[in-house]
Amino acid sequence: MRETPEELKELQALLDASLSRSTSHLRSIINTERTLTAEQLTQVLTGMCTLALSTVTAKGEPRISGVDGHFLHGKWHFGTARDAAKARHLAARPAASVAHMRGEDLGVFTHGTVEILNPQDGEPAPDWSDLLAYFKDFYGDDLFDWDNDVVYYRLHPHWMTVYAPDFAKLTAASPS
Length: 176
Prior knowledge:
Elements: H1 5-20, H2 24-29, H3 38-44, E1 48-56, E2 62-72, E3 75-81, H4 85-92, E4 95-102, E5 106-116, H5 128-139, E6 150-163, H6 167-173
Antiparallel strand pairs: 1-2, 1-4, 2-3, 3-6, 4-5, 5-6
């Protein structure tokens, strides 16, 4: 777990607010018995989590693709090639949604706005050097030309909800 107590408090407030303003249909599926606390969520979302990323084209058409997601400090972080269609979509329209699902055991659904962490022609995010060290440790130093080949994003969520009917089952199956 990389989250500070303040980050956990903010994440819990987001989870609570998101569920409370969800539709009655969603609340019939995701309720206090079938969700996770912020602390539990950070225990489950470790390492790389495959995300379905939804972006929007210039014509307003939805597009979905897969990305490697890393849940760090209570937010999703992910990257792609600088010349990927999703990178163009996010540069022009930074609203995005992601979903991470593990069969019927876990669903994490997030809507928000992305921040570019390592813009090619601008100042990187203040924590980029720490994040880059994490990504290089995870993927290897020489997997990419980290300055020119890949762009990384942080999704600042305005809505997030979690479906998890059995926390014990998730922690038993989680990698150590």
